[in-house]
Design goal:
The protein has 9 helices and 15 strands. The N and C termini lie far apart (40 Å). Helix 4 links the parallel strand 4 (66-69) and strand 5. Helix 1 crosses helix 6 (192-202), helix 3 (54-60) crosses helix 4 and helix 4 (73-85) runs parallel beside helix 5 (113-124). The chain is globular. It has a 6-stranded parallel beta sheet with strand order 3-2-1-4-5-6, sandwiched between helices. Strands 8, 11, 13 and 15 form a 4-stranded mixed beta sheet that branches. With 266 residues, it is α/β, with parallel strands linked by helices.
């Protein structure tokens, strides 16, 4: 049995907490910027934390074996420093998307993730291992209410239903069916629940690789459109090519921006 700290209270953090509580005997705490009566009512231990206060972070991480982060930016960077200071054994950063190896050097969607990985690589040399969860897009992005309905990605600006690639209710899509080389674009997808289960199962691994990969399905963008049309009883989507993304997918330096969200031509 180990002690796990889950940073964040979004939908993914709650799913991870649920599966730790129901499927394991591990102890866990949830680090939150604010008190959360709803999570406390479930019998979960929620600890208010100030991510800008190193001493507070270190105090809250006392005795923790593994940290699972669902926060980003400076909060995550400070969390990594505190984890290393408290000799936390393992750290899973807030990634949960495409593989970091495919990203460009200067990624406009980075949100401090590259700096977090650099920190983790440095601390790995001092004994704190880490693993990135690569899972592509969440299925929930295309469901009713989008990812916002699952309380995931609320600060991304594209968490709402129909805000990313496809609007199923409006039968509209702004998508990269093909790249400039004429290759079909594919999307890798996994449900948030499966990702949470996989993360929890990984807690029992004796050691972690630097990247854990999970894939629920892999479909071409055109096939996803067909699924939407079938759901609407044969209606047709009004598709508009996303020319910027089509161009990006054909250029190695920018392809990884698309790969961050599970888009690939292979």
């Amino acid at each position: 049995m180990i002690k796990v700290a889950i940073a964040g209270t979004n939908g993914l953090a709650q799913l991870i907490s649920y599966y730790i509580a129901t499927n394991t005997s591990h102890q866990f705490i949830i680090l939150s910027r604010h008190s959360n009566a709803g999570l406390t009512a479930k019998g979960w231990q929620v600890l208010p934390v100030n991510y800008n206060n190193p001493a507070d972070l270190q105090y809250k991480l006392a005795g923790v074996d593994t940290v699972i982060s669902t926060v980003s930016g400076q909060a995550q960077l400070n969390l990594i420093d505190a984890a290393a200071a408290m000799q936390v054994r393992r750290f899973m950063p807030s990634e949960f998307e495409g593989t970091p190896a495919a990203r460009p050097f200067s990624d406009p969607l980075d949100a401090g993730r590259s700096a977090a990985l650099a920190q983790l690589q440095q601390y790995a040399q001092q004994g704190m291992s880490y693993s990135v969860m690569t899972c592509g897009l969440f299925y929930e992005r295309f469901g009713p209410g989008g990812m916002a309905a699952a309380q995931i990605g609320l600060s991304s600006g594209i968490a709402g239903e129909g805000q990313f690639m496809m609007d199923f209710k409006g039968l509209r899509a702004q998508i990269p069916l093909f790249n400039s080389l004429g290759e079909e674009v594919y999307v890798c997808m996994t449900s948030a629940q499966d990702v949470a289960r996989y993360v929890v199962a990984a807690l029992d691994l004796p050691s972690w690789p630097t990247e854990l990969r999970l894939l629920g399905d892999r479909l071409s963008v055109g096939e996803i459109v067909q699924v939407g049309e079938q759901l609407w009883g044969g209606g047709y989507f009004l598709c508009r090519p996303f020319s910027l993304l089509i161009s990006a997918l054909s250029r190695p330096g920018f392809r990884s921006c698309a790969l961050r969200y599970g888009l690939t031509t292979r």
